[in-house]
Structures are given as structure tokens and as C-alpha cells.
Design goal:
about 25% strand; 2 domains; ATP binding; binds zinc ion; nucleotide-binding; BirA Bifunctional Protein, domain 2; 5-stranded mixed sheet; alpha+beta
């Protein structure tokens, strides 16, 4: 495995965010230059699983995956009036033509749609999404993947023939987002939010509550309705706009954002439908972002202990780490047993490719166990002396258990058969 523990990262002591420290120290990520991070093998495995979860939920609402260019010309952004956005990364080619490296794709997708337009109401909703690198010229990147200059984002754009249908689509997408966070088993809140630079009529944000989050959220104690502080009139007494209940506030890491855009982009770029009376009308659009690399880190931030990563289990890089005895008396036998156990487990339909054998036999079991706990494998199995008994007894450690348990291979497989993977 591409890892070299104990190589302390120079900036580490000055970091104030738990997930940032844990991800650097356990070699999930590594800074390349400020605001830009390498994602190392363990991080990539988790990220790819997260992408599969998102793909499944997008597919379940009928969204189709595409890929749009990262670089788009000045003309797109002049047309939408967004060329002046400060965070746009801009560049010129050898012919002195100006481009931007996209942070978002409303312009491109509307143009794409317009090439095939007009659509009929029967064909709606049309939902196109991509998961790709996005770029933002952040003044002060911090907390690694939580606020970087380069990040992985899922952006979905929806096109409907009327506002009523667009609202229905909006609700469906928000529901799919809730399903994603529920599958990851991370606590989240959905709050009303401002529409900002994107524009539009309705907007909601999805946050993972955390004290390092940069947004202040007001949550109703009565009905759980949430509002971003930006929308609250600070001069008035704070009460829930829905039920009048008392509000409490929390900070949150924004991981998703939904906008009902209306016709802002579709009218500029002629992304149209034909209505009942054969009139050509701009479509009612929605756009929906998920910060994919941000979810990866925010999930770790909200679930982990100070010195041990806790992954959202579904997307842990590996589900199981097997630790055979240190080299010496009978270590060949325990290594063989570890290999046989691994073979048996990877033959289970849910665990193919999910097992790591820590074969650094020059290290003690204790040292490797310490590291395995720190990396946060959801299941750790030690193949020690008692594995040489007949029948073999394996020492099983789950992070949420108070103590380890010795068990037979059948017992272990029974526990593992219930593990959800993707
Ligand atoms: Zn309320």
C-alpha cells in the first residue's frame, strides 16, 4: 500500500480541523500546493464509492450522466452576465482568446439543451448531471477538501415545461439528496438559503452540523425547519417562519445546494419547450450541486474521534483488515490462515475486493492494530495464536465494540454477511 506512517506533515501542528489532521496523518490526502490536494489510494477508494452512491440515487430519479468541458469561452459567461464573478479562474490561449475553468455549468448545459430544443412537455423532466472537477479562485482556502480551489462536484441541471412541474422535480431531487445522506448515515439538515450568484426563486442547502462549519443555521425546535442565518432578519425576534416555534442555532458544513432557477438561463440560451398551444417557451430550470470531495471530508469530520477515523461505513475504503502474527514462531502458519480467511471472505458477494491483509510482519500486532484503528477499518481481525487452535478462533475488533471478541470463521462470516457495500 502506498503509505508511510509516521512521516509527520510539516503544517500539521497548526491545523485546527480534526478531519484535516486525520486525513493528512493517515495519508488519505496530501497537499500539492495551497488549496489543491492529492487524493491518495485510500481516499480514492472512498471517493469512488461515494460517487457510486450518488450515481445510483441520480439514476433512481431518472437523471442521466454526461460530461461537459472544464474550460468554456468568455462568450458564454458574458451572455449570462457572470464573467465578473471574482472566483472565476480565467485563462487565455495562444490566440489571446479568453476562457474560464468552470466552477459551475449553467451556461454550458443550457446551450447543450438548446441544440436539441424545443422539447415537448411529454419529454420533461429532462435531467442531466455530471461529476467532475470544478475550480474556484478562493482567496483563503482552508481545511483541505472543505474549502479548496479545486474540487470534485456533482452538478445536476433539470429542465421542465412549467413551473409547477419544476417544483415537483425540485422536491424529487431534494428527496434523493436526503436518501444519499441517509445511506451514508451522517447527520444532516436541510435549510432555506439565499440564491446568491446563481440566481433563481427557491433555494435550499444541505449541511452536516459541525462546529467548524462556516454557515450559521437556525433550526426550529418544534418542526425542525431550518434557515440559513443569511435569510434571518437579525433585528427581529427569532421565531420559526413555519410554526412560530423557538429556534436554536448550529454551524454547518454546506455539502449540497439546490436552486429553482426559473427561466434565467433558459431564456438567455434558448433552452426551450413547446407548450400545448404550440408556443415556444423557455424551460423552467433547476440546478443542484453536491460537493463530492467535501462530503468525503465532512463525513469524516462529523463521525470521527480525535485520533481515529470513522468513515461513513458504506464508503469506507476497505471493510476489513486482517492482521497476522509478527514474524517468528508459527508466523508462517498464521499468515497462511490469514490468506485462507481473506480468500473465503472475498468470495462473499458483498465483500469482493474489500479485504486488506497487513503483511508488515516485521511490526508487532499491537502496532499494526493501532494503525488499523486509526485508519478506521470498520472490521479488524487478528490472526494470532488462538487461530492455531482447532477450530481456529479469530480475534475480531469493531470500533463500536467495547472489547474484542474471539470467534469462529462461521460467526465472523455471519457478521460480515450483513455488511452493506457499494
Ligand atoms: Zn417550526
Amino acid at each position: 500500500m502506498f503509505q508511510n506512517f509516521g512521516k509527520v506533515q510539516p503544517a500539521e501542528t497548526s491545523l485546527s480541523c480534526k478531519s484535516h489532521k486525520l486525513m493528512l496523518y493517515n495519508e488519505i490526502i496530501q497537499q500539492c500546493h495551497p488549496g489543491h490536494y492529492h487524493i491518495l489510494p485510500l481516499g480514492m477508494r472512498s471517493l469512488e464509492k461515494l460517487i457510486r452512491v450518488i450515481d445510483e440515487e441520480m439514476d433512481s430519479i431518472g437523471a442521466q450522466k454526461i460530461s461537459m468541458p472544464c474550460i468554456t469561452p468568455l462568450s458564454f459567461w458574458k451572455k449570462s452576465g457572470r464573467w465578473q464573478i471574482k472566483e472565476l479562474y480565467k485563462l487565455k490561449n495562444r490566440q489571446d482568446q479568453e476562457f474560464c475553468i468552470n466552477p459551475t455549468h449553467e451556461e454550458s448545459v443550457s446551450l447543450l439543451f438548446s441544440c436539441h430544443a424545443p422539447f415537448t412537455a411529454k419529454e420533461a423532466p429532462i435531467m442531466l448531471y455530471q461529476i467532475s472537477r470544478k475550480f474556484r479562485d478562493e482567496m483563503a482556502p482552508k481545511y483541505a477538501l472543505l474549502r479548496g480551489r479545486e474540487f470534485e462536484m456533482k452538478d445536476l441541471y433539470t429542465f421542465d415545461s412549467c413551473l409547477e412541474k419544476a417544483k415537483e422535480t425540485y422536491e424529487n431531487v431534494c428527496f434523493a439528496y436526503e436518501k444519499i445522506f441517509n445511506r451514508l448515515q451522517v447527520p444532516f439538515v436541510k435549510v432555506e438559503a439565499s440564491t446568491g450568484d446563481i440566481g433563481g426563486k427557491i433555494s435550499h442547502e444541505f449541511h452536516l452540523p459541525s462546529n467548524i462549519g462556516e454557515d450559521i443555521l437556525y433550526i426550529c425546535k418544534g418542526c425542525n425547519h431550518g434557515v440559513n442565518k443569511e435569510l434571518i432578519d437579525q433585528s427581529k425576534e427569532q421565531q420559526c417562519p413555519k410554526c412560530g416555534g423557538d429556534l436554536h442555532f448550529t454551524s454547518g458544513i454546506e455539502v449540497g445546494h439546490a436552486f429553482l432557477l426559473g427561466q434565467k438561463y433558459s431564456s438567455i440560451f434558448k433552452a426551450t419547450f413547446i407548450d400545448k398551444n404550440d408556443n415556444i417557451i423557455p424551460s423552467q430550470m433547476g440546478c443542484f450541486g453536491l460537493g463530492v470531495t467535501r462530503i468525503l471530508q465532512a463525513g469524516i469530520e462529523v463521525l470521527s474521534l480525535d485520533r481515529q477515523i470513522r468513515w461513513p461505513k458504506l464508503i469506507a475504503p476497505y471493510q476489513l483488515c486482517i492482521i497476522p502474527q509478527k514474524e517468528g514462531y508459527q508466523s508462517k502458519e498464521t499468515m497462511d490462515l490469514a490468506m485462507a480467511l481473506s480468500d473465503q471472505i472475498i468470495n462473499m458477494p458483498n465483500l469482493n475486493g474489500e479485504v486488506v491483509i497487513d503483511d508488515r510482519l516485521h511490526m508487532t500486532i499491537g502496532k499494526r492494530l493501532y494503525e488499523a484503528k486509526r485508519i478506521g477499518y470498520p472490521h479488524i481481525v487478528i490472526v494470532g495464536k488462538r487461530a492455531l487452535e482447532s477450530p481456529p478462533q479469530f480475534e475480531v475488533i469493531l470500533p463500536e465494540w467495547q472489547e474484542c471478541q474471539f470467534m469462529s470463521v462461521d460467526c465472523l462470516c455471519q457478521i460480515l454477511s450483513g455488511v452493506k457495500t457499494i
